[in-house]
Amino acid sequence: MIVNYTAQGWEVITQRAHGLLAAQLAMHWQKSRRPARWTETVLAIAGHDDAQIELEADDLLTPQGGPVNFAMKLFEPEHCRRLADFSLSKSRYIALLTSMHMVFLYDKEKETNPLVKPFLAEQVKLQHQWQKELHIKPAEAEQIYGLLEWCDAFSLLLAQHEVQPEHRMIEISNGPDEKEYRLQQISGGRLTVLPWPFEEPEFEIRLETRLIDQLTFKSNDEFKKRFLAAPVIEKKWVLCKKKV
After folding, report:
1. Does residue 205 sit in helix, strand or coil?
2. DSSP string computed for 115-170
3. Averaged pLDDT in 10-residue chunks for the chain of 244 residues
C-alpha cells in the first residue's frame, strides 16, 4: 500500500487502486501509438500490483506500529510467484509485461539477496519463450513495457503528492519512445504533461484513498478494521493540453 502522512492522519492507497489509476492514464494514450494488443496492455497496467491484497496480508505494520509504505518492502518470493501466476492465468502477453516489471523492480537487489538472482534468471528465460511464442521482438516488448512503467511512475507521482507547486515541473519517466516527459501544475489546479502524449486535449482521472486518524496500531487486525471503517475519499485530477 501507499501511505502518506498528513495533518489529519494516514492517507492510505491500496496497490490495486494505484494500478487502476495507472490504467486510467493508459486509456487516454494516443490511439496511433497504442500497441496492437491494446486491451491486454491496459489490463497488464491495471493489474501490475494485483497480488498485493492488503486485507489478506499480515505484514502491514512497522515495528513502531505504523502502516508500512510500499517503498519499505523488498523482494518477497511468495508475492512475486503469486503475481506471476495471476498474470499468466490471464494471458502470456500480460505475464510477459508483468515479468518485465518484476525484473525492473528487483534487479537492484540481485547482488544482496541470494533469492533474487535465480528468480530473475527464470523470469528472463520465460520472457524469451513468451516473446517467441507471441511473435514479439525484444525491442517491441521493451517499447510496450515502457508504457507500463511510465503509467506506473505517473500514478505514483500523483498518489504520493509529488506534484510540484508554483508551476514547477517534475520528471515523470522516459516513455515508450524514450522521450523525457514532465508533469506541471497549471492554472486552476489542473495538470499538464510536456510533451502531451494523450489522445484527448482534456480528461479527468480518479483515485480512491482512505484517511485513518489513528497513528499507531497494536496488530494487523486492528489496522484492517480501521482501514475498513475509514472514510473513502475520491481524489480527482484534470489533465489538459497546455496551449502554446
Report:
1. strand
2. THHHHHHHHHHHHHHHHHHHT--HHHHHHHHHHHHHHHHHHHHHHTT-PPSTT-EE
3. 95 96 98 97 91 80 93 88 93 97 94 94 98 98 97 98 94 93 94 97 98 95 96 97 82
Cis peptide before 195 (omega within 30 of 0): yes
- Side chain identity, residue 29: W
Handedness of CA 36, 52, 163, 239 (dihedral sign): positive
Stated length of the chain? 244
| Grid cell listed for 66 | 505504523
Torsion of CA 223, 224, 229, 230, to 10 degrees: 60
188 Rama class: left (phi>0) / alpha (psi -120 to 50) / beta = left
Taking the CA of residue 118 as centre, how many other CA atoms within 13 Å lie in the half-sphere pointing to its CB?
4
User: Nearest-CA neighbor of 227 among 24, 63, 74, 2?
Assistant: 2
Torsion of CA 177, 178, 180, 185, to 10 degrees: 40
Grid coordinates representing 244?
502554446
- Count how many Cα atoms sit within 13 Å of the Cα of residue 36 in the half-sphere of its side chain: 6
Buried b (16+ CB within 10 A) or exposed e, 213-227: eeeebeebeebbebb
Tens of pLDDT, residues 177-194: 989 999 999 988 999 999
Burial of 143 (0-12, 13-18, 19+ CB in 10 A): middle
Give the count of beta carbons closer than 10 Å to the beta carbon of residue 45.
29
